[in-house]
Each structure stands twice: as C-alpha cells, then as structure tokens.
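Annex B. Sample input.
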Amino acid sequence: MGEDRRKKRILKEQHAYVDRLRNYRDKGITIFIDGKSTERERDWYKIFEVREDGAVYMADYVNTEGGQLFEIHFDLVYLDMNVQQAWQKQKRLEEMVRKDQIRHYKTVLRQCKK
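Annex B, continued. Sample output.
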C-alpha cells in the first residue's frame, strides 16, 4: 500500500513539473531535450526516466544578460561513470556476440547448400 502512495505522489510531482514547463512555454521560453526544441508535452515526460545505463536528465536554465529566463535545456548526465562504463562494455559485448552469431549462421547456411 505504501508503494502505491509513493508512485501516486511521484506521478503528481511529475505532472506539477510539466505544468510549470507548460507555463514557461506559454510565456515564450523554449524547452530543449537532448539539444532539440520540443513543444509536445508528452515528450517532456522523458526527462523523468532513469535509464538502464545510469543516465538521468539534468535541467540547465539559460538566462539573458538581463537575467530573464530565455531557454530550458534538459541533457543526459551520468551520476556514476562506473555504471556508464559497465553498461557500454555490456553493449559492446552483446554486439560482438550478435556478429559472431550472424557469422556462424552464414557458415551453417553455406555448408547446407553444398
């Protein structure tokens, strides 16, 4: 039961954050995710994801020289470089295994044709 309450609270906080982003957008402030301007609110929920490689989104608020908010940028950051490196190593290994499997299947097919 406590887990359900926690999930509801988190979802409520996410909706409130998206509401604030909507208010900024309505005031002419551009919102960027991964370097691309995005107007669609459903794309904004991406910033709450915690990826399997340990990356999370971090907000960067860009102001004019006069101190007025101009843009909001969300970019991926890695909180733990060891997790990122382990994830990249795992992906490289999976790719190597996949290539070896393809080579093996091609060899088997060639042998079957003989």
